[in-house]
Design a protein that fits this description.
mainly alpha, 2 helices, elongated
Length: 74
């Protein structure tokens, strides 16, 4: 069997940033959808619920980035 290549911490971090960037776009899109629902739907609560879901996605993004960044710095 061929030996597997190992990535450096910097390379792992760069790949993680590429993947987690998608979470940023997803959170933004969900929050934009919530804003649209607040404007278009008869109930504002539906839009607020979507905004909260988008905010949760972005907070998870932030936690993962900070956790990984601390791992790389050490």
């Amino acid at each position: 069997m061929a030996d597997k290549k190992k990535l450096t911490h910097q390379q792992e971090f760069e790949i993680m940033k590429l993947i987690l960037d998608k979470f940023l776009w997803l959170g933004f899109a969900v929050m934009a959808f919530g804003l649209y629902n607040m404007w278009a739907a008869p109930s504002i609560l539906t839009g607020i619920a979507w905004l909260v879901v988008g905010a949760v996605i972005l907070v998870l993004f932030m936690i993962i980035i900070v956790k990984e960044y601390e791992f790389v710095v050490k």
